[in-house]
């Protein structure tokens, strides 16, 4: 028995029980080692003319024996001498592959793709094996040698037999472990099945550059006997056939011009288990400090669990065609969590287990480029395939809006132009840039209304009042909309027609344009205003004067109405939104940062019934031109406080109903209506 050339027991125990967290990657590591061995022989043949190789014969074989509880990984690569077995397997954390890479760094090029780095991948076998036997014959040697260990104290190396060069790694799989103390046991039988091994190969090693082959069981119909009668029923038999399990060539490393749209679609649907084609395929190769390939997909529909807490975002991360992480969350921001795909880079620094990354800086650099590419592709979709983009936004726009809100508006400049909202004036979905381009001269803000139904919003007095003045209103029906707008605060509209400070400057610009000059443009900051909050400053001078006079003349009336409504409202005032007899008699607006819709969202949350939930500061605005206002004045002049209180409650509850909110006391509201009838 030879001892490992380190503090073996302690270090080997660390390798087996601490470095790796996922036992099933043992096959990935052993196949990667086999691929390296084949690569080394292939590279050597490039400069050693005595080595005659048919690259079509280079392969990796995987086999299992359920009865003997063994798994065998074989290659016909360069093999190892007795000294190399001693050095590579007897010394933990000595990497022959890393040594090879360093020695041939200047000359290996694309002909080889050495995967190993740390010299510990082999020892992952002991996570599932009670004993590991390695039979290896170096190329050009006549004798083979056998390395064997139970992974506890040491190993043996003895002469052995192998028909040709290469290596066999034979694992004796552990017995199943029963569960104890309520904990689930460990079943190792799953590795001793055709399906289990094929699944691991396809998941982790599907794109290793050499064929990974297995004998697989298939079924075929037996020939029909010559003397079979008319009632003969076909009979079937099982047979075994050598099959290549892996795909070898990753689709993302092919030039996009060499891959058809159908090929991309089929890869997406089979890899990510979707039945619809993707809405967009994004393929690119990056060079520089980091070299990597990326193949991304924008799904054609939203996954059913996209907005659930169980949904996992992330792109599959590969290094040298070997999957490192199935979902690397750091590669995409939360607002692009719907994007699926693959990033493959040999330059990322992996930790010793190759399960996670070592340097966040490299990952952040890739993530920034991926994010910019996604944004660019979405902008192109928005501008050149609007129908598809509107369907995309219907599926995933909520997440983009939340990205602006969640970043406290810092992502507004990057994501704001991707947003779509329904235009009450245009009767279609528009971007903020399109809204701004269509604004009448002199408009200084973007107006929006928030509610749960577009048709109801379009009929609300606060919306119709703004539309009547010639300004468009964006009708927003998602609960995140107002939070998004408040985080943005304003929108910078690019290349807007320049607004001149005086007539002289305007006339000079018009003369210059008449002489052939290009029209002047400027970037304009537009405030985002909820039509149901604050003072929109849309009233004309005459309307402002009328409102001031009505307020002063009926000051006692407003005081009486406020007293009748109590804490329900902050104040009662003449409306600058409702100024015509044919408009609504009253509406509810709010002051401060919390709107009625935001209040509804807060109340629907987990702490909705708790004290301290933010409340909207409500204002009851009255239309001084409406006949109902004259009824209020008459009741005040007559000193009929009971009727005034009844009118105040009805107007307030009616305005709530228009906003899509129930009166605080529906029974009292119904009784008041009956009393008036």
Automatic annotation (TrEMBL):
Keyword Chaperone listed: yes
Keyword Magnesium recorded: no
Record CDD domains: HATPase_Hsp90-like (cd16927)
Region (A): 1-354
Xref: PROSITE patterns: HSP90
Domain named Histidine kinase/HSP90-like ATPase: residues: 22-177
One Pfam family from the record: HSP90
Subcellular location: Cytoplasm
InterPro entries: HATPase_C_sf, HATPase_dom, Heat_shock_protein_90_CS, HSP90_C, Hsp90_fam, Hsp90_N, Ribosomal_Su5_D2-typ_SF
Keyword field: ATP-binding, Chaperone, Cytoplasm, Nucleotide-binding, Stress response
Region described as C: spans on this chain: 601-677
Chain's role: Molecular chaperone. Has ATPase activity.
PANTHER family per UniProt: HEAT SHOCK PROTEIN 90 FAMILY MEMBER
Similarity comment text for this entry: Belongs to the heat shock protein 90 family.
Subunit note: Homodimer.
Stated name of the protein: Chaperone protein HtpG
